Amino acid sequence: MKGIVFTEFLDLVEEKFGLEMVDRIISSSELESEGVYTSVGTYSFSEMLQLLQHLSENTGISIDNLLLVYAEHFFSVIEKSYPGLLATYKDPIEMISSIENHIHVEVRKIYPDAELPTFEVIEKTENSLIMDYTSSRAMHHFGLGLMNKTFEHFNATATIALEKIKEDGTQVRFIIHKN
Question: What span, in angstroms and rounded, lies between the C-alpha atoms of 9 and 45?
Answer without folding.
Answer: 13
